[in-house]
Amino acid sequence: MKLRRNAIRQFGAEELEGGREPVKLIGLCFLISVLVALLYFNSLGNQFTNWDDGMIYENPSIRNLNWAGIKKLFTVEPGNTYQPIRMLSYAIDYKIWGLNPLGYHITTFFFIY
After folding, report:
1. pLDDT tens, position by position, 14-44
2. What span, in angstroms and rounded, lies between the C-alpha atoms of 61 and 39?
3. Phi-psi region of 25 (alpha: psi -120 to 50; beta: other; left: phi over 0)
4. Which of 30, 49, 57, 69 could form a disulfide with 64 if both were Cys (CB 3.0 to 4.6 A apart)?
5. Spatial distance between the Cα atoms of 36 and 46, rounded to a whole number of angstroms
6. Cα–Cα distance for residue pair 6/21, rounded to 1 Å
7. Where are the domains of the chain?
8. Torsion angle (degrees, nearest 10) of CA 53, 57, 60, 65
9. Number of H helices, E strands in the chain
10. How many Cβ atoms are within 10 Å of 90's Cβ, its own excluded?
11. 76 pLDDT band (50/70/90 cuts)?
12. What is the distance between the alpha carbons of residues 61 and 59, in angstroms, rounded to a whole number?
């Protein structure tokens, strides 16, 4: 116990024992989250960007969300980048939203949080 108190004093975190510091930290995290949400909110109405052509428009592997399609997403192909979770996310988005960019932006928004 003596070692812990010395460590707390050393790092200047004496307020942690009082209980006020966690409330301040939670408030700060909430404020940062609100600011990030406000900054990202204006992008929800945007279209896809030019790099989305190869990943979404021209990618037939995200259009098939059965077991064979999922297996193909997790198969390493020489010459391609291996990003199976990202491609699976696009496949789920395509199944729900089709080619509506709003759905993809909403999914990205939830991944941020």
Report:
1. 544 556 788 889 999 999 988 988 888 888 8
2. 32
3. alpha
4. 69
5. 17
6. 18
7. 2-41, 52-112
8. 120
9. 7, 0
10. 21
11. very high
12. 6
- The alpha-carbon radius of gyration of the chain (Å, integer) is 22
- Three-state secondary-structure class, residue 16: helix
Q: In this structure, what token pair is assigned to residue 50?
A: 């030019």
Q: How many other C-beta atoms are found inside a 10 Å radius of the C-beta of residue 62?
A: 21
Contact between 91 and 73 under an 8 Å Cβ cutoff? The reply is: yes
What is the pTM (predicted TM-score) of this model?
0.65
With tokens 């409330």, the residue in question is 23
Which amino acid belongs to residue 1? M
